[in-house]
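Entry
Fold in token form

___
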Amino acid sequence: MKYYSLNNPQHNVSFKEAAITGIAPDKGLYFPESIPQLDADFIENVENYSDTEVALKAITPFIGDEIPQDKLKQIVEETLSFPFPVVKVEEDVYALELFHGPTMAFKDVGARFMSRCLNYFTQDETDKKITILVATSGDTGGAVASGFLGVEGINVVILYPSGKVSDVQEKQLTTLGQNITALEVNGTFDDCQDMVKKAFLDDELKGVNLTSANSINIARWLPQMFYYFFAYKALKAKNKPIVVAVPSGNFGNICAGMMAKKIGLPIAHFVAATNANDTVPRFMNSQEYVPSATIETLSNAMDVSNPSNFVRILELFDKQFGALESEFTSYSFDDKQTVETLQKVYAEDEYLCDPHGAVGYLGLKKYLEGKKDYSGIFLETAHPVKFANSIEKNLKLKIETPQQIKSVLNGTKKAIEISSYEELKEYLLS
């Protein structure tokens, strides 16, 4: 499989090169040159396959023979070393829990898969160090730090907005040390993301061998298809069309789900649920893409006003708005609605959402209004403990701290404060 830049279709590279470089020289995101189609018999009998077998079937066409099948199977097995339960919340409404990994966030899947791919691709190039430069609005940083911790030949530099991630999220990316460095940016996530994009285009940083572990990187984006297959497998026997609502910030997760549909997974509809950062919901109403200033919310990992991956969603539909609209809906919800939903779902259904999952639940319920005979799934993308302060205050309860979180809470924060791109560049060159 070759990948082309969305800014220049003539620029083609291998999976390996796209994974190592992260973004094209012209700043374009990489996209597969063709959409593979899974065997209809496999989809019809998907419940008879293990999660590893399903994931391997889904990802192999995108990698081809660049990673041997036995090695790719090992990578998939190590990536999926924790469960992905589908939990009934109410009649025909289910939560797909993606927080049972080492950092208790959905991004563990992409980060673990990518780290193992890069480790394989660079194992014979011990003299060539790679620097992973990544911006985080919350969970990406911790997942990438955990996934790449101690990986030989790879240094990780994480930019995060000061005061705009939760205490647990900050601990997960600032306390590990070794080959992980955290840069605390005086600004928003969009400022962090802009710095990262600028660094990739800076000729003076060519010798640093930069790559990205944000969902702009195909090796982190594509494996997120896996859990949509697992969700479909869990509900297939109900014989109802499935709607999936995804709390969306940078739109990589929902884009991966939509790619899963394009290669053969029969999901009826996707709902992108955003917080007050409503660039995409406004676009779906007006067909004008106009990012506004980023707004801070309770669901901080979605505080993104210019989502990088939305351009990939448009590409999936050949930029045909009518085709996109038939399979994709987007709604925006504010913090008041989020808190009310946290309280309602906990009181009525005895299910504890995190703020992002609550936004996903809101999106699902809104889409299903007046519609019958659907099974609905909303994604729970992070464990509620990562947002303990706001949840405990609003729900008047105490969240038990899981072992994965206890292990980092006592760590010492170590971060370098920066306020400008020049400071980032100076650090990278040093």
